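Running this now, will post back.
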Amino acid sequence: VQLQASGGGLVQGGDSLRLSCTIRGSRNSIDVSGWYRQAPGKQRELVAQISRDGSPTYAEAVKGRFTVSRDNAATIFSLQMNSLNPEDTAVYYCNAQDRWCKGHWGQGTLVTVSS
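Update: finished.
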């Protein structure tokens, strides 16, 4: 399984941004797809994830602002980020966990939110 993330960039506070992650390989083995982020000097944290049945989970800090989704073919999953603020500045990583509980990571994509 290989993941390719895209969509990061520099935006102003209050703006929106959409990240996408393309899954290549044994995508049918993926049980959970998600997004993590790592801000400077901080540990990587879970932002949002979506399970095989489509159930989403969000970190408290992004509830109501971010939406995780997945296409029906499970080839692309996305993170729609609205009402961005400077605290959302981080490198965002997509992640997919397969049925054997192995995690697969995409390369990070930088999101910078200016105040």
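The chain has a mean pLDDT of 95. More later if anyone needs it.
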